[in-house]
Every structure is written in C-alpha cells, then in structure tokens.
Design a protein that fits this description.
This protein has 127 residues and is α+β, with helices and mostly antiparallel strands. The chain contains three helices and six strands, in the order H-E-E-H-E-E-E-H-E. The protein has one domain.
C-alpha cells in the first residue's frame, strides 16, 4: 500500500514537472495590434505570435482608412467624443488596462472632445 502511494505521488510530481516544461518552452503569444479609423472605427487583434500578423488582422477588422499601433505585453484603448463621434478621439497603449483607458480618455479631451468615452479596448496575453 505504501509503495503504491509513493508511486502515485511520484507520477503526479513528474507529470506536473513535464507540464511546466512544455508550457515554458511553448512559443509566447504576446503580440497584438489595435487599428484606429474615423468615426469610431476600430479593429483589434491580440495574442498573436508575431506583430505583423496582429497588425494585419486588426487592420482587416477596421472599416475605412485606418492606422494600427502594436502592443506587446500591453493594453490599448480608444476613446471617442460622443457629441461628435467623427471628431476628436484619443488612443493609448500602456502596460496595464487602467492606464491605457485613462490615457486614451485624456487624449480625446486634449484634442477637443466634450464627452469622451471608451469605444474599445484590448489586451494581449501579458497586458
């Protein structure tokens, strides 16, 4: 009985160590992009293995003429003016969601927004 308990415990510890080793060597999916367009248009892509693939995916989702910013282990946010959605807007990429939301809103007001609200946000694997 004691021998089987030790074998089971060893098997569990060995299995956990193997799982951790596989996870540690797996490629990190920590690239993302956020596309920003006119009138509140946006696209987002996160947890990609490469920044270019994330950028392409985000631009594909965004309607119209859009620009993309990349985020790596970070969060991005877009704020638009609800009084004039096609007017002032702001965006930010920061390590934490709270700071990206705050900075995007500040940027919207800085460019003349009257009632700036968050339109969209995204974080990659580590943000």
């Amino acid at each position: 009985m004691l021998l089987s308990f030790r074998s089971a415990r060893f098997g569990a510890v060995y299995g956990l160590a193997l799982l951790l080793a596989i996870t540690a060597t797996a490629p990190s999916l920590a690239a993302g992009a956020f596309a920003i367009g006119k009138c509140g248009a946006y696209g987002q892509a996160y947890d990609y293995s490469a920044e270019q693939a994330a950028r392409t995916a985000a631009l594909k989702q965004c309607k119209g003429d859009c620009t993309a910013v990349t985020m790596k282990r970070a969060c991005a946010a877009l704020a638009v003016d609800m009084v004039n959605p096609c007017g002032p807007h702001g965006y930010a990429v920061r390590p934490r969601i709270s700071s990206s939301l705050n900075e995007a809103t500040r940027e919207c007001y800085k460019f003349g927004g009257k009632q700036c609200v968050i339109r969209a946000w995204a974080c990659d694997a580590r943000g």
